[in-house]
Design a protein that fits this description.
Helix content is about 85%, strand content about 0%. About 5% of the residues are buried.
Length: about 70
């Protein structure tokens, strides 16, 4: 593997994947609200999705904490 390949591999290993996924989930909240406003999704479905996103975000926070302890 050349120097460039090693640099890319090192950069990818430094990414905090659980944080990236959690932040992406949380960034979608405004999109969900807009989708409800535009009637792409109804309010009941939106209310059902939000708790699930919260559960996944909490799980990712726990994963991050565990990975940091092991590092």
């Amino acid at each position: 593997m050349g120097d460039r390949g090693k640099a890319v591999e090192r950069s990818l290993s430094e990414i905090d994947v659980p944080k990236l996924i959690r932040d992406t989930l949380l960034e979608n909240r405004p999109v969900e609200i807009i989708a409800a406003d535009l009637k792409y999704i109804d309010e009941n479905n939106l209310k059902g999705i939000q708790p699930q996103i919260d559960v996944v975000a909490r799980m990712l926070n726990g994963l991050r904490a565990t990975l940091k302890k092991k590092a």
